[in-house]
Amino acid sequence: METITIKDIAKALNLSTSTVSRALRNSYEINPETKKLVMEYAERMNYRPNPIALSLKDSKSKSIGVIIPEIANHFFSQLINGIESIAYNLGYHVVIFQSHDSYEREVANTNYLVSRRVDGLLVSLASLTTNLVHFQELMEKGLPIVFLDRVPNDIETHKVVADNFTGSYEATEHLILSGRKRIAHLTSPIYLSITTERLAGYKKALEDYGIPFDESYVKYCLYGGKIEAENEAAIEEMLSLPEPPDAIFTASDRLTTGCMSVFQRKGIRVPEEIAIVGFTNISVANLLNPPLTTVMQPAMEMGQQAVELLIRLIEHPQKDEKFETRSLKTALTIRASSVGKSVV
Amino acid sequence: METITIKDIAKALNLSTSTVSRALRNSYEINPETKKLVMEYAERMNYRPNPIALSLKDSKSKSIGVIIPEIANHFFSQLINGIESIAYNLGYHVVIFQSHDSYEREVANTNYLVSRRVDGLLVSLASLTTNLVHFQELMEKGLPIVFLDRVPNDIETHKVVADNFTGSYEATEHLILSGRKRIAHLTSPIYLSITTERLAGYKKALEDYGIPFDESYVKYCLYGGKIEAENEAAIEEMLSLPEPPDAIFTASDRLTTGCMSVFQRKGIRVPEEIAIVGFTNISVANLLNPPLTTVMQPAMEMGQQAVELLIRLIEHPQKDEKFETRSLKTALTIRASSVGKSVV
DNA sequence: TTTTTTTGTGCAATCGTTATCGGGAACGTT
DNA sequence: AACGTTCCCGATAACGATTGCACAAAAAAA
């Protein structure tokens, strides 16, 4: 893997490396003829500056790190597409890491990305992360970080989230207006911002329509690893309560599909016996059996806005004193899984 | 972003940088006491070697580049998970880039990854790539490359693929044995290896069961961009042939869901009017309406094997003269979308 | 003609790390 | 006493690119 360097050009043209460097950057102090000579030679030899050498010199890399729980998930892969589309146009590269919802891997990825001199970080927290010092230390050292979707409460920086409260409220309200009385909520671990926000929207809707909140209808589920079976067991347990729910509002892709699997396996008819609304970005929601009512998050746009904020932070470090939290509207799409009255 | 360097340690401990460097690498020529001193100080100050400096020095990065068409796709995201799981254990980092099925972006990503000194490349070709010189040049310069899934014919290196021929044969055979006579095949662009292999399996099955091959039942579809609508139009066109197919065998996630969308929109009953089998890794195949018969590729395992081959190539450059092409078994899972005789 | 300015180029330091070379001290061997 | 080993450690040169400074030659001003 020999690549051509500035030194090779200098030698070939009988110039010094500094002259070559300046010629390539089109500096005013270089003779136009020399410039032309250098540029043409560089072009011909397909010279590309070594970004590693530049990173070492400047402690900059023109790249941003993204840490997300997992990529095999519609929401997050759309998020990445949004991030990449903008970053690419602004000349930044995107380096993606998965935390797999593990705190340790989140920390390891963070350290690695920092040592690789990324210019900034885009983070959606792992569901098991409660300790945030690894991010706080970096921010104190001046590394720009923008959080998105799963954001921490006690770190002051830009954040981009979906309007989880309203999304959740609308989903719950829709179930109520469809005649459901016992609405369960299957959600993510309690530490996450998305969990509390969605729970609040759910509670508020119940309250507004005079339905008492029942803790036994709420289940916080873990992510990652071999938890799927456990979650499905929890679902089945809830279904065998003395007064089983007649509707279920799930907070993620995985939980939604897990639920539907349970329903299918146990022959529970949807929406006749139970309605379901998912807070999910599954792309094939309309092809499911039955077509699934969803609260969709504007994932692509969230990614775009977050990366814009981050790059602003990177390129104008001092200017930004005010941090903003952008909350983007979700979209409730009503399909067959939640319509029609419960038969119970 | 000031980080502690070997120089800082040297200054603090009144040693030279070389001594510190050697002490940290536990060299035999350093006094155990000095070693201890250095190591403890480094530990206390949370010293981490700068990987950029190392990359610059060694032209190595302990990282491998992955270029795939897109990540918002079950097959490819599973592939990545397989790659990461192995790479992580072997001390390599994984840098992911999407070609979005564009030749230009594939080339751009390749160049960037190379300039970033990745130690090797894992590639699944963009569907519009016909010119392979950007890979050939790199291989001549000694950069290890392993292809997977969408592999080139005329490059000699390790390759990992699914057994597309057999997978396709079994899918077609299954449709034939279920009583289908006019089996259409919706597939990827003709340049791709997966396309020709699957087509061959499809043809062989038809031949073995005495069904004449009809070119008008085969449609090569483009990927990427705003092609979806165009593909769906092609599907509708095929459905309005004088003798429309009574079964359809689709070659990818996108084409499969596109088909099912058309069926749903036009109220075509599956499997009564038409059967469908997808060559796809959609995770919710069993939740679709109707549950979808699929040929699943062992995506995770393909990723694992490919990265193993690549790292072997990286770490033992001379030893490998024989290149192998591993072909992994697919799994046909029969569900409702393809059972029951056609009513026609 | 002499002095000053401008123009074009090279030198050397820098970023963090390691490999190469070499050297001093302490010890053992003739 | 003279020499060779062994043990520790330091100075230096890379890796590729940029940049402040120096400096020569040429051009302009005196």
Total number of strands of chain A: 12
Q: Return residue spans of chain A where pLDDT drops below 50 for at least 5 consecutive residues.
A: none
DSSP helix count of chain A?
A: 12
Overall mean pLDDT of chain A stands at 91
Radius of gyration of chain A: 26 Å
Helix content of chain A: 40-55%
For the largest interface in this structure, which chains are involved and how many residues does each contribute?
A: A-B, 48 and 47 residues
- Taken from the alpha-carbon principal axes, the silhouette of chain A is elongated
What fraction of residues of chain A sit in β-strands?
15-25%
Strand order of the largest sheet of chain A: 2-1-3-4-5-11
Task: Please give the largest β-sheet of chain A.
Answer: 6 strands, parallel
Distance, first to last CA of chain A = 71 Å
Oligomer: homodimer
SSE string of chain A, helix = H, strand = E? HHHHEHEHEHEEHEHEHEHEEHEE
Determine the structural class of chain A based on helices, strands and strand pairing. Answer: alpha/beta
